[in-house]
Amino acid sequence: MTQNGEESTSTRRPEITGLRLAEDAPEPADPPAPGPADLPQDRSQAILEATKQIGALLKRAGHPFALAGSVAVYAHGGSRYLQHDADFAILPDDAEAVAGALREAGLAVRTPPEDWLLKTTCHGQNVDIIFALAHQPVTEDMLDRAHVLPVDSVLMPVLCPTDLIRSLISAFSEHYCDFGSVLPVARAVREKVDWDVVRSTCGDQPMAAAFLFLLERLNVIDAQEGQP
């Protein structure tokens, strides 16, 4: 038992030797200058780099394809703000051959539960290889209508604006109906779209019809003839 704050011999802490005084400690080195890997990544540019690499690979392999999704909108003059993935449309019969070409290039190919696409990763970005758009198989006619456009300096086929809009609004359903994400796309490409074709092919679908009505009320497109 101790008294007056004194420790007994049996409980006294051992002396610690070899401590360096604070004034003798070496000054910490300056932190290393940030390198490219330490800088914030431009997500949009990363998606574009992935798009260019996959597009170039498919071109070399000779597989018909067309760029789809948000990067296709960018190629047609839309926003460069890309925050999702890169999408490529291919023919259903080419899916196995395209998967083989990707694997030969050292890219892992994943088969998700959905039976209409394959997935891979390039430059850390997700890439979807799609062979059905809005539940309809990609066709040769659709790929033939694609426009060859520069995508950040690399030429590649891009879904024509009419097919691009049709694929987006035909995907609307009672479970997915995000008009807000497609509205800026429609605004960006409205002068390049054949809206009569869009109406004739998907205008009888309830969600698509509602979106077309919204575009008319917002004066994005002209009202259909015969309608107020």
UniProtKB/TrEMBL annotation:
Q: Which SUPFAM superfamilies match?
A: Nucleotidyltransferase
Mind telling me which InterPro entries this protein's record contains? NT_sf (IPR043519)
Per UniProt, the ranges with Pro residues bias are 28-37
Chain residue ranges for the region called Disordered:
1-41
**Protein's recorded name:** Nucleotidyltransferase family protein
Recorded source organism is Streptomyces actinomycinicus
